[in-house]
Design goal:
By secondary structure, the chain is an alpha+beta fold. It has one domain. It is built from 2 helices and 7 strands, in the order ββββββααβ. The N and C termini lie far apart (27 Å).
């Protein structure tokens, strides 16, 4: 699935526990909020954090140019509050290595 910058996605739980950051090099192809494909002139940070609702574990993640990891974590935590166990379970059942689901949520710069 393509990278949509700043858009939060949900996927099956990652084997890493807690909050993780992975840096992707410049030159990666991504789509901006208007759907235009671009090449990144700078590194893209991938932030991911595992959550649990009932018995269902899932991860929320976002790929962004922001380096404010604390602000991103706070925003992921807020979005996680609105995820139901039923929805998380449905996403996790159909998730594969290449398949996840984007939410209708974006991280906000400067927060």
């Amino acid at each position: 699935m393509e990278i949509i910058i700043d858009k939060i996605g949900i996927w099956k739980a990652d084997y890493h526990k807690g909050y993780t950051v992975r840096v992707m090099p410049a030159g990666i192809r991504y789509f901006d909020k208007s759907g235009i494909c671009k090449l990144a002139n700078d590194k893209i940070n991938r932030y991911a954090k595992n959550y649990k609702k009932g018995k269902t574990e899932f991860v929320l993640f976002v790929r962004t140019f922001s380096s404010n990891k604390d602000a991103i974590e706070k925003q992921l935590d807020e979005v996680a509050k609105g995820i139901t166990e039923k929805y998380a379970r449905e996403v996790c059942v159909k998730a594969t290595i290449d398949e996840f689901e984007y939410l209708n949520e974006y991280v906000k710069e400067g927060e």
